[in-house]
Write a sequence for this structure.
């Protein structure tokens, strides 16, 4: 539901970053979304398409990396991806771990095309 | 060419939330953020809470809704300053809205700031308001699997309040199953079951809030 707001924030960030590269064309923006971030990928794609349509960003590609929930075992330090909400450590079986991934809502990178150098 | 950016998508909200958090600590304001589906009983919980607090206590309430000031009118009967934040379609409160309304209502600590978010289990979980705790409400007329369907908010909330427990004899809701589901998502989440209508369990909630306020004041005093 709030994906329009998220898409707008992404675009604002792209616009601000693009100003630091005058003349370059931004062709893609890479974002990371965690499964606990409460953002739906399809809704975000759709929102992004809607807010960029008929604007200078029409051809900007949104590249989403989906990040599963990851935990770190407090008993043996094993880091593991959580499947089907099973928080038990797959190595030692301990039921005592801390969340280290899955809440991401980050802009990771921009893909830029520099203008051709004038000869 | 790839340019590494590494920024939070909501970095502007996060920046403002950090400012709010700093202000709360400086002025000794404990801010809690209530989040639930529409109709889970946030306003009823707040009404009963306000009725239980001494009018001399410094308390302020911000209540968010997409439309109407009905909740603010309900909540303003208890003698504390209340402001309605009408979001006009936005499905959550953000740090900028809190900042603006807090400044306009001129609430200064020490005290307690109760924020009732827009009824929604999804979007409010993404927006940090600088609060000391998020509290998620689940009513017994909903499904026990809500924590599994909306893991984001149950993961971030410090406390889960099961509301409308006076209705338990009339519904098939199993509190233990709901709590088990919440703890699958967030093993450390705290839990209180209550009825705002009968007051059953309310003493536990008030004690929880009081304990949080004491802890917050101690931390604030230590860092200021």
């Amino acid at each position: 539901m709030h994906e329009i707001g998220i898409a707008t924030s992404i675009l604002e960030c792209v616009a601000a970053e693009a100003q630091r590269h005058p003349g370059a064309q931004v062709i893609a923006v890479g974002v990371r979304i965690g499964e606990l971030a409460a953002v739906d990928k399809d809704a975000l794609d759709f929102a992004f398409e809607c807010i960029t349509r008929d604007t200078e960003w029409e051809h900007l590609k949104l590249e989403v990396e989906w990040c599963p929930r990851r935990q770190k075992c407090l008993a043996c330090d094993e880091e593991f991806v959580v499947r089907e909400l099973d928080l038990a450590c797959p190595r030692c079986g301990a039921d005592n771990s801390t969340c280290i991934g899955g809440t991401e809502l980050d802009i990771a990178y921009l893909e830029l095309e520099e203008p051709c150098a004038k000869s | 060419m790839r340019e590494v950016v590494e920024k939070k998508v909501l970095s502007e909200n996060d920046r403002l939330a950090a400012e709010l958090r700093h202000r709360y600590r400086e002025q000794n304001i404990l801010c809690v953020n209530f989040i639930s589906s529409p109709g889970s009983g946030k306003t009823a919980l707040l009404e009963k809470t306000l009725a239980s607090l001494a009018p001399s206590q410094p308390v302020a309430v911000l209540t968010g809704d997409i439309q109407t000031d009905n909740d603010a009118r309900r909540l303003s009967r208890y003698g504390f300053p209340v402001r309605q934040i009408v979001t006009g379609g936005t499905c959550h409160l953000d740090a900028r809205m809190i900042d603006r309304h807090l400044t306009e209502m001129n609430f200064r600590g020490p005290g307690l700031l109760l924020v009732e978010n827009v009824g929604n289990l999804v979007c409010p979980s993404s927006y940090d308001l600088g609060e000391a705790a998020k509290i998620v409400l689940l009513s017994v007329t909903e499904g026990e699997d809500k924590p599994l369907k909306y893991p984001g908010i149950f993961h971030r909330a410090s406390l889960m309040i099961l509301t409308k427990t006076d209705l338990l004899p009339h519904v098939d809701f199993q509190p233990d199953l709901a709590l088990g589901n919440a703890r699958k998502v967030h093993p450390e989440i705290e839990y209180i079951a209550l009825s705002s209508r009968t007051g059953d369990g309310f003493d536990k909630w008030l004690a929880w809030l009081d304990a949080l306020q004491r802890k917050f004041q101690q931390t604030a005093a230590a860092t200021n």
